[in-house]
Amino acid sequence: MNEQVxxxxxxxxxxxxxxxxxxxxxxxxxSRTADSELGAQVFFKCENLxxxxxxxxxxxxxxxxxxxxxxxxxxxxxxxxxxxxxxxALSAQLAGIPATIIMPHDAPPSKIAATRGYGADxxxxxxxxxxxxxxxxxxxxxxxxxxxxxxxxxxVIAGQGTAAxxxxxxxxxxxxxxxxxxxxxxLSGSALSTRALSPATKLYGVEPEAGNxxxxxxxxxxxxxxxxxxxxxxxAQTQHLGNLTFPIICRDVDDILTVSDAQLRAEMRFFAAxxxxxxxxxxxxxxxAARAMKAQLQGQRVGIIISGGNVDVARYAxxxxx
Length: 322
Ligand SMILES: *Cc1c(COP(=O)(O)O)cnc(C)c1O
Known about the structure:
Rossmann fold, ATP binding
């Protein structure tokens, strides 16, 4: 049925060679407090400490590193209000490729400025009246630019899978792994690494309960579309899984779990107070789900991917205080 070729673990290995020395090999952190609160041995893969503040740099750089000469000259286009935009902008700058990023006109000025700061050309659109995918496709066609989507792309998935690969290489096999879920690039890439390096691991995707399209899709067997969910987890406000991410998730993931915004705020406080880590709301999905499941995790070795740390400082203070 699926005409597209799904990426494999061999693609993750190739991606890890392409990003070596450019992306950070982020630290794996532990916390005695987390261990005793969960009754498990917990390993946190800290992608909040990745370049530009999230794992998105891995997939973006891997995709751009595969451009041929004509693609490099014409440049890359991406649409995103968040971390994918910054991942593409920074990767393009490092690779010497011109980048155009399509962002909503009401995106946080700090994010627009950060994207321009990496040298990208920012095109603003009205998210209520214009279709960003159409704008992206038009630009790609008119100028011969290559569109790199935020998750549904084999090179993006393979790049995202390098974080879990590094985790298993560092700590060995795990009983369970919790991964944040938006469109599924990180989860499907992590699934490739998990099934290759620690096949018996229970692999869980975690999304905000307000936007549980992934859970609905996983359980019904076909991709469910929803309206943009209202949640503080802005990195997981996707409306549907992808044509590549969905089949990998169905094949390799054990279950999709959901958590509330209140649980995410509690984990932001935990990371700040106990681990001295700034974690954005979406990056807290994994720990929130693991804590809710702790009865099943007693005595186990548990991995959690902290996906990112990009949150406006004033907003961060508000979320911690609230
Ligand atoms: C993009 C993003 C996610 C979700 O990743 P997908 O590959 O879309 O599932 C999770 N956390 C952060 C911080 C992100 O930027």
